[in-house]
Design a protein that fits this description.
The structure is a single chain. The protein is α/β, with parallel strands linked by helices and about 950 residues long. The chain is globular, with a radius of gyration of 29 Å. About 40% of the residues lie in helices and about 15% in strands. The strands form eight sheets. Strands 5, 6, 7, 8, 9, 12, 13, 14, 17 and 18 form a ten-stranded mixed beta sheet that branches. The protein has a four-stranded mixed beta sheet with strand order 21-20-19-24. Helix 9 packs across helix 21, helix 11 crosses helix 14 and helix 14 runs antiparallel to helix 15. Among the domains are: about 130 residues, no CATH class; about 180 residues, Anaerobic Ribonucleotide-triphosphate Reductase Large Chain, CATH 3.20.70.20; about 70 residues, no CATH class; about 170 residues, no CATH class. The chain is built from 28 helices and 26 strands. Keywords: Cobalamin, Cobalt, Disulfide bond, DNA synthesis, Nucleotide-binding, Oxidoreductase. Its cofactor is adenosylcob(III)alamin. It holds the Pfam family Ribonuc_red_2_N. This is Vitamin B12-dependent ribonucleotide reductase.
């Protein structure tokens, strides 16, 4: 797309200026990119998840007609600037893109990036086209800040440093607070701080880093992130040879013991509950920096020395396998700590003469110098898949050049939270280009995520992206100079470039798609090495794989970052409100690629829509099942499948990968140890795991949070005599409550009767005319449920079976407390739970009234809202017709209804929707908020 020009003729006969000659990718001369788009006006109205009131409304916003309702809603609510209702408020995507791109273009001109004004215009138009068409997106801080009166912060990732001095520790607290307040996250390595086993100069014993973590955690929990109610995003790292490493490893696991004890004692330990604040160390991700020396000691079964911080002498020896076992056990219990592989990270370090890499950002994808930052951008890979299912290599190369140029320009105008971070970032100019929709691309082209073919495609694309990025960085160095720290780091930087190129040479292609991509990657790396020798490089770092949470939704991506598809069925928001269930659009395309005829495709898609998986789908060959494997569900990708995919792309990334390897609840400590060991052997830089339901202090947990133990062997079977249950019949006169409801337009009545001394015992349902089939079925169902209740079947048991059951009629209800229902049964049993179960039992099932959620948001005890029901008064009254309250919003049902894998995901504190995983973080599909990564 571009070439370096040092002698082109400028306008008006002026002397030629050095700069980039830009070539068009998507745009045409004389035509503004906006003029080639069909625009439409929409209304964005967001309701409060607690009481149904409108909390955001902006009508008449303008977006391209091909943008989804969800993408437009998120951009309108999160990225448009100006007070709502004022003339200053942005109302069109054109205004947003113009605000951002205008600053990039003007800065590029001012700093001599372009050979001519015409080249600057091409840059401007191409960037606007790519953003408007969702081909790529900058990270959120760019959209928040660039072109506004706010500081021009463009970075989402920061790394701090702490020395063994009280002044430095207090400065760490302050810097973290400033970063959290601005809505970003940071990471830090505490290994320079003396351990609790070492002496101070005064003769006393040092406190140790874990004690200072307590203060930082309290600060983060108070400030939160961006001044909002969600937790701050931070990473705390400790080297494996630190004398306090065992205490660090077990810190969060011990706190989980506290959570269990307090919960069993009756305290409110749900996320957002008033008593959860007593739990410490919960505002950070913890990672252990392991060395090759330590991992080899684990393999061989030897001792490992823990070293004093000031002298470096070994003050204690531990069994390496025992210490590694404690890491695995703690991660099994509470998902922390993750591992960062220190020698691998620093072996790929471009600027070691400046300092070692000691830490990462909160999601572990940015690893570089202390007191530095990185701005990110991600490419939507599915935009490069042609109609014939080939990958558009040429356009991908040109777009990557464009993005790297824009990202480097941004450092020239960017503001930073601290002076030290600003100095380091301007001197080393770290960038973080990445991608999203890899999982969707692989499925659409008939590649299984956990397959040699899928990994070959992913590796080739990643190699091409980074090769082009560094080649463009070398070209930029020829125009505006290399980064300030390049001279002292030239040799190690060029060594790392050769390592990337060598890894590309070793990449084994499988099919024609990855072979074509790899061939171009080889050409790019060859040119990169040649230009790097001549000009040096403009950027110390170029690529990584971020979680792409909010921006993935902005680009209408089916999958985020390096992740596979989460589920085969999802919900789509509709214009005017409501939603519909759809099968992911990549599935028909994949079936066509695999050779199925249209009639077969329609039958398979219909089966998936009903069952949410492909097992036994009519006509689908078993050898093709793996193409449709997802992160969770009937055919979940095995944990090592995720690790292998990370290993396929890691050699081609400057940084690391934001990804959590999910394991089933049945996984053992040995399984987690294997994942951690294979991560090291396969050359990963960082790795985190999460075992389903391992944490107690989470909402909607499917587990009961009982005593933590590794699964044990089956006990000896003993035969016991069980008493036969007896039926407890209802008295002739009993209290009852009648509820009128509407589900998906179908009206009905439910009468629930209770025993006078408490307890539901009878349910009657009416939904059609007497004598109709539906009326008969509902009568029979009512009798079956009522008899079960009278024989002692707990209501909670029925809840677990019928909540989230899916069939028509389904959709909107007239109940302000349960706004959406996946079926009549789903609605009925949610309503029964709200009316007849105490708060503690409903909380375990994840069902709350609007008032209870509002109380949680205010930090109050929801249990205090409960009032005992006067059954005697109720028995003497006429049946009561109630208008129940609102409960789950549609986006929560998006995942929970057909996949029960998000039980441990937090609720979005902005809109109340259940969040979904995005790399090492969580993202809300309802409003775009994230748990820490932009």
């Amino acid at each position: 797309m571009t070439e370096t020009a040092s002698g082109s003729v400028a306008r008006g006969g002026k002397r030629p200026r050095k700069g980039l000659k830009m070539k068009r990718i998507f745009t045409n001369p004389g035509v503004h990119p906006y003029d080639e788009i069909q625009w439409e006006r929409r209304d964005v109205v967001m309701t409060n998840w607690r009481d149904g009131s409108v909390n955001f409304e902006q009508r008449g916003v303008e977006f391209p007609e091909f943008w989804s309702v969800n993408a437009a809603n998120i951009v309108t609510t999160k990225y448009f600037r100006g007070a709502v209702g004022t003339p200053q408020r942005e109302w069109s995507l054109k205004q947003l893109i113009d605000r951002v791109v205008g600053v990039y273009t003007r800065t590029g001109i001012e700093h001599g990036y372009f050979a001519s004004d015409e080249d600057a215009e091409i840059f401007d138009h191409e960037l606007k086209h790519a953003l408007a068409h969702q081909v790529f997106a900058f990270n959120s801080p760019v959209w928040f800040n660039v072109g506004t009166q706010s500081p021009q912060q463009v970075s989402a990732c920061f790394i701090l440093s702490v020395d063994d001095q009280m002044e430095s520790i207090l400065e760490w607290y302050k810097e973290e607070g400033v970063i959290f307040k601005g809505g970003s996250g940071s990471g830090v390595n505490l290994s320079r701080i003396r351990s609790s086993k070492e002496l101070l100069s005064s003769g006393g014993t040092a406190s140790g880093p874990v004690s200072f973590m307590r203060g930082a955690d309290a600060s983060a929990g108070t400030i939160k992130s961006g001044g909002a109610t969600r937790r701050a995003a931070k990473m705390v790292v400790l080297d494996v040879d630190h004398p306090d490493i065992e205490e660090f490893i077990e810190t969060k696991a011990r706190e989980e013991d506290k959570v269990r004890a307090l919960r069993d004692a009756g305290f409110d330990m749900d996320l957002g509950g008033k008593d959860i604040v007593s739990v410490q160390y919960q505002n950070a991700n913890n990672s252990v920096r392991v060395s090759d020396e330590f991992m080899r000691a684990v393999e061989k079964g030897g001792d490992f020395g823990l070293r004093a911080r000031l002298t470096g002498e070994v003050i204690e020896k531990v069994d390496a396998r025992d210490l590694f076992r404690k890491m695995g056990k703690a991660a099994w219990e509470c998902a922390d700590p993750g591992l960062q592989y220190d020698d691998t990270i620093n072996d790929w370090h471009t600027t070691p003469e400046t300092g070692r890499i000691t830490a990462s950002n909160p999601c572990s994808e940015y690893v570089h110098l202390d007191n530095s930052s990185c701005n990110l951008a991600s490419i939507n890979l599915l935009k490069f898949l042609k109609d014939d299912n080939s990958f558009n290599v040429a356009d991908f190369v040109k777009l990557t050049e464009l993005i790297i140029t824009a990202m480097d320009i941004s450092i020239s105008f960017a503001d930073f939270p601290t002076e030290k971070i600003g100095e380091t970032t301007r001197a080393y100019r770290q960038l973080g280009i990445g991608y999203a929709n890899l999982g969707a691309l692989l499925m659409a082209t008939g590649h299984a995520y956990d397959s040699d073919g899928g990994r070959a495609v992913a590796g080739a694309i990643t190699s091409l992206m980074t090769g082009v990025s560094y080649r463009r960085s070398a070209e930029l160095a020829g125009v505006v100079g290399p980064y300030d720290g390049y001279a002292r780091n030239a040799e190690p930087h060029k060594r790392v470039m050769r390592k990337h190129a060598a890894a590309n040479d070793d990449l084994r292609t499988i099919g024609s798609m990855d072979a074509k991509i790899h061939a171009e990657a080889s050409r790019q790396w060859s040119e990169c090495l040649k230009l790097g020798e001549k000009h040096g490089y403009r950027n110390a770092q170029a690529s990584l794989l971020a979680p792409t949470g909010t921006i993935g939704l902005m680009m209408d991506c089916d999958t985020t970052g390096i992740e596979p598809d989460l589920a085969l069925v999802k919900f789509k928001k509709l214009v005017g409100g409501g939603s519909m269930q759809i099968v992911n659009q990549t599935i028909p395309r994949a079936l066509k690629q695999l050779g199925y005829q249209q009639e077969q495709i329609e039958a398979i898609v219909e089966y998936i829509a009903e069952h949410s998986h492909v097992v036994d789908a009519p006509g689908l060959r078993r050898e093709h099942y793996e193409v449709f494997d997802c992160a969770m569900g009937e055919r979940a990708i095995a944990p090592m499948g995720h690790v292998r995919m990370m290993a396929a792309t890691q050699p081609f990334l400057s940084g690391a990968i934001s990804k959590t390897v999910n394991l089933p609840e049945s996984a053992t400590i040995d399984d987690i140890e294997q994942v951690y060991m294979e991560g090291w052997r396969l050359g990963l830089k960082a790795l985190a795991v999460y075992r389903d339901n391992c944490k107690v202090g989470q909402p909607l947990s499917a587990g009961n949070g009982s005593k933590k133990e590794e699964p044990q062997a089956e006990p000896e079977v003993k035969v016991v005599e069980v008493n036969r249950p007896t039926r407890r019949r209802m008295p002739n006169q009993r209290p009852s409550m009648t509820t009128r409801f509407t589900v998906g337009g179908a009206k009905g009545y439910m009468t629930a009767s209770s025993y006078p001394d408490d307890g539901l015992g009878e349910v009657f349902l009416k939904m059609s005319k007497q004598g109709s089939t539906l009326a008969g079925v509902m009568d029979a169902f009512s009798v079956a449920i009522s008899i079960g209740l009278q024989y002692g079947v707990p209501l909670e048991t029925y809840m677990s079976k019928f909540v989230n059951m899916r069939f028509e009629p389904a959709g909107m209800t007239d109940d302000p407390d349960i706004r959406m229902a996946t079926s009549v049964m789903d609605y009925i049993f949610r309503r029964l739970a709200l009316d007849h179960l105490p708060y503690e039992e409903r909380a375990a099932l994840g069902i709350f009234s609007a008032a209870e959620r509002a109380a949680q948001q205010r930090g109050e005890d929801p249990a205090a809202l409960q009032e005992p029901v006067d059954r005697e008064a109720l028995a003497q009254s006429a049946p009561i017709e109630t208008q129940p309250k609102r409960e789950q919003p549609v986006a929560e049902l998006t995942l929970e209804s057909h996949q029960r894998f998000t039980a441990d995901a937090p609720l979005c504190m902005t809109c109340g929707t259940k969040m979904r995983p995005a790399g090492s973080c969580y993202v809300c599909e309802g409003c775009g908020s994230t748990s820490g990564c932009s």
